[in-house]
Amino acid sequence: MALEIIESCVNCWACAPLCPNKAIYEAAPHFLIDADKCTECVGDYADAQCVAICPIEGAILDELGAEMNPPGSLTGIPPERWAAAQAEIMAR
Q1: 63 pLDDT band (50/70/90 cuts)?
Q2: H/E element holding 3?
Q3: How confident is the model over 24-50, as a mean pLDDT?
Q4: Does residue 26 sit in helix, strand or coil?
Q5: Does residue 36 have a pLDDT over 90?
Q6: What whole-number distance in Å separates Cα of residue 34 and Cα of residue 23?
Q7: How much is the pTM?
Q8: Is 64 helix (H, G, I), strand (E, B) or coil?
Q9: Closest CA to 60 of 71, 69, 47
Q10: N or C: which end of the chain has fewer CB within 10 A?
Q11: How far apart, in Å, are the Cα atoms of 20 and each of 4, 5, 14, 33?
Q12: Which contiguous run of DSSP H or E holds residue 24?
């Protein structure tokens, strides 16, 4: 059981200090999670702390590759509406 940070990470440093297991570390081009240390905060917190603080939708995946903060989860804007708004802006 371990989470994964992917390339959409912007290295903002929000997550690293919150990890109770020190599993998150700076790497290039983005932060990474040491799978041997990551417990998804089970036993320490109700929710994974890196996911709770991450400002980038889709930057952290669970062990099955599912986005922990999927598109729309942080902004409250459904992906379909966001795509429609972007298309409308581009059409102007």
Answers
A1: very high
A2: none
A3: 96
A4: coil
A5: yes
A6: 5
A7: 0.82
A8: coil
A9: 69
A10: C
A11: 16, 16, 13, 12
A12: strand 24-25
